[in-house]
Write a structure and sequence with these properties.
- The chain is mainly α.
- The chain has helices spanning 14-25, 28-42, 47-72, 87-105, 117-141, 146-163, 171-194, 200-221.
- It is globular.
Length: 224
Amino acid sequence: MPTSQRPAPYQPGRPAELAKALTVLLNPQWLQLYWLLGVLDYIDARWEAFVYTLLAMGILPTLGYLAYSRGLKLPNTYDLPHRYRLVPFGFNFLGLALMLPMLFAWPEWVDTTFTGSVAHFQVTAGYCAASSLVAALITLRYKLSLHMVGYCALAVPMAYVDLLPHPQVEVGLLVGELLKFGALGILVGWSRLFLRAHTSAEVLWGTVVGILVALGYWAVVWTV
C-alpha cells in the first residue's frame, strides 16, 4: 500500500462542497456511530441506549476532536498530516471507552426482553474497537482511506439486514442493494479523491480492508 506523490490542491466550488459534506457525514467515527445505532434499532433497545450511544460515540468525541484540531491550527482537516493521523483514533477509543458502562453495567437499556440481544450489541462494539485498532496499526506504516474502511464495514451488514425479511432473495433485490450501497460507496471514494486526501490505490485498499472487516464481523456474530 505505497503512497504516491499528491496531486495539486482541489478547486473550490459546488463539487468541493459536496465532497466536504460526504467526508464529514461519512467519517469513520460517525460511521461506527451509525452502525451501533442501527444495531440498537434492530434489537429494539430502549431510548436511553440511543441517547447514551449518541453522546458517547458521536457528540463528545467529535467535540473533543474539533477542539483539539483547532488548538493545533491544522491547515486542512480533510487530509491530516502524517504525524497527526492517529489523533482521530484517540478520540474514537475514548468514545468506545465511554460505551463500557452501558455495555456491562446497564445491559437492560439494550436488551429489554433479556433474549440475548445485548450480546450482539457487545460484539458490535467490540468489533468496532478491534477494527479501529487494526486500522490504527496499518496507519502507522501505510496510508489508506479510513472513510472507505468504515463505509464498507457498515454497508455490507446493512445490505444483509435489508435482505433478511425476504426468505428467497431475488436477483432484482440483490442488484438494488448493490446499486444503492455501491453508488454511495463510489461517492465516498470520489470525495476523498476530489479533496486530494488519497490516491486511487489508497481508496482501493481501504475498500478491501473494509469488506474484510465486515466479513469478519459476521463470522463472529454468527457464533453468538
